[in-house]
Specification:
alpha+beta
């Protein structure tokens, strides 16, 4: 699942260089009910959905959790965890790390399900983002030159007023 608003050049490159891979990408601008239904259908067919978990939303207000990351508070998106909760599907963490001339792919079980009642959602989101931040920090410390983010990662989340500007 690829949010294309800020990655169109990457998408164009991927489509040109790897059309078979690009054919399986789901390009979205926002996550509405129709997108969720389509994702549920793909899960039911046995497909895997991959969502980048360290990119905070550009346009939403308050859809992040502040967690400690590498010694400083950082914002992590709630979206992947909310979606996993609504779709009631297993969640895995996926890391692809270069080791010399080869790549090591790690797939870690994260949760069999994140589905919870509405009353439990706030706690689930806090716990899930904290666990994710810890695992991301673990790999960032082991491979410090391989983790990067396209945004100012430790910048506080924008306020509602900043979103309107």
């Amino acid at each position: 699942v690829v949010f294309t608003e800020h990655g169109q050049r990457f998408m164009d490159y991927l489509k040109k260089q790897h059309p078979a891979v690009a054919a399986h990408l789901i390009e979205v601008q926002d996550m509405g009910a129709d997108t969720a239904v389509m994702l549920r259908e793909r899960i039911d067919r046995g497909e895997l959905l991959v969502i980048v978990g360290d990119r905070t939303p550009v346009h939403s207000e308050g859809r992040t959790e502040t967690q400690s990351f590498l010694g400083a508070p950082a914002e992590f998106p709630q979206g992947p965890f909310i979606l996993a909760s609504l779709l009631d599907c297993p969640v895995y963490l996926f890391f692809c790390l270069r080791e010399g001339k080869r790549f090591r792919v790690t797939l870690e079980p994260f949760a069999n399900s994140l589905a919870v009642s509405r009353a439990e959602r706030r706690q689930m989101l806090h716990t899930a983002t904290a666990r994710y931040a810890e695992r991301l920090a673990h790999y960032a410390k082991q491979y410090p030159l391989q983790w990067f983010n396209f945004f100012d990662f430790w910048r506080p989340a924008p306020t509602k007023a900043e979103h309107r500007d």
